[in-house]
Amino acid sequence: MKDTTQFLGKKVLILGLAKSGFAAAKLLSSLGAVVTVNDSSPDEGSKEIAELRSEGIHVICGGHPDGLLDEGFELVVKNPGIPYTNTVIKEAIRKEIPVWTEVEIASRISEAPIIGITGSNGKTTTTTLLYHMLNVAKKKPLIAGNIGTVSCAVAETATKENIIVLEASSFQLLGTDSFRPKIAIWTNVYDSHLDYHGSSAEYVKAKAHLLKNQTSEDYFIYNADQEVLREVALTSNAIQIPFTLKGKQQKGISADESMIYWNGEPYVSRSIIKLPGEHNLENILSATAAAILSGCDKEPIESVLSSFTGVKHRMQFVKELKGRKFYNDSKATNTLATKSALAAFQTPTVLLAGGLDRGHSFEELRPFMGNVKAVIALGETKKRFAEFAASCEVEQIILAENMVDAVRQADLVSVEGDTVLLSPCCASWDEYASFEVRGNEFIEAVMSL
């Protein structure tokens, strides 16, 4: 951690506890800030709150008191999920008090260079791939952000010998000011979180904080197959590294059906890649480019590409049983993710889908249902998904009682050569606390066959 006095004596309000608020409060207090934490949830014997109070940090629970910002706060650090329509945030902006997320603090104290990764899809896979490449190459990477430990806690212990690989959401990036990653990766952009950002333009603007402070000494790796990101790249001051799936290109990293190219030269054969799906090739290209720019030799990169089979709950290979392959894609909570999953397989597919009913249409999946031989529908949307599957002329449609029943039914209707794919196309909150819990139940059910 850098030796810094920038927070010494500064009055800071942490809005929202959770993991990020807890880590930011402890760090800022250790750096000499006068910290107050405010969380809307009541204090119900929280160990974290007790620990903060034992260290002299003021904690206010159960709501936002009137006049909270009248105490002379010079900085607000908010939980990324708290919207800017929150009354305290609106008042802070009116009073011209800076509003950050803890990612900004991490960037200010980190001795290690940061590789920042964002995108509507593929962030976690790209982050994990790159981490493994750097790790095999003995570059001492540390993983942070959405996928790992809170970034300011990672930055607190990082040294110049490390590289921080940071997965950053639009929520986190919007609350940054001077954040400047040495390498920025933007995997793709699709409409997402519009209830938070208000419009597609504001969503893109929030993610563009990733590169706004980069200079000609930094790198920006971006998806050149998307017009919106080509336009974003025009605003970048960094060295631009485009990636594309549209055949060999002379600049950046590219791929055709058989080969990955680096600046137009053959780099590695696609035949060694274990991770399935064209959408994952985007993640592979961006991670590989960042690994090369970080000084990795080809051998560690090839080693990871020939062994990495996926992130847990994202196109995760679970097991092969009697010639059928089972995949856990529980993290697919929308049509875009399930569409990508279906496109990854050319084999007859038994699809397990359904979950929380938000009323969204499944129509975008229609062009990708050709290889689906059976649908096992579950959750709140099971009847709607079954009706959609019937309109796609899927041969077999089964309404399952629960995940164990769904896996049992998939076992019965599948044969050798089939793919059994859990890709729900819906959030998990109708029956599960998270998509992780849902995915773990699928894995357990498959393992018990």
TrEMBL record:
Write the signal peptide boundaries.
Answer: 1-25
Indicate whether rRNA-binding appears among the record's keywords.
Answer: no
Chain positions recorded as ATP binding sites:
119-125
Catalytic activity reported: UDP-N-acetyl-alpha-D-muramoyl-L-alanine + D-glutamate + ATP = UDP-N-acetyl-alpha-D-muramoyl-L-alanyl-D-glutamate + ADP + phosphate + H(+)
Q: Which enzyme type, at the first EC level?
A: ligase
Give the keywords, sorted.
Answer: ATP-binding, Cell cycle, Cell division, Cell shape, Cell wall biogenesis/degradation, Cytoplasm, Ligase, Nucleotide-binding, Peptidoglycan synthesis, Signal
Q: Which residues form the Mur ligase C-terminal domain?
A: 313-425
| InterPro entries (UniProt xref) | Mur-like_cat_sf (IPR036565), Mur_ligase_C (IPR004101), Mur_ligase_C_dom_sf (IPR036615), Mur_ligase_cen (IPR013221), MurD (IPR005762)
Q: Tell me which SUPFAM superfamilies the record gives.
A: MurCD N-terminal domain, MurD-like peptide ligases, catalytic domain, MurD-like peptide ligases, peptide-binding domain
Boundaries of each Mur ligase central domain copy? 117-291
NCBIfam families registered for this protein in UniProt: murD
Stated role: Cell wall formation. Catalyzes the addition of glutamate to the nucleotide precursor UDP-N-acetylmuramoyl-L-alanine (UMA).
Task: List the protein's name.
Answer: UDP-N-acetylmuramoylalanine--D-glutamate ligase
* Taxonomic lineage of the native organism: Bacteria, Bacillati, Bacillota, Bacilli, Bacillales
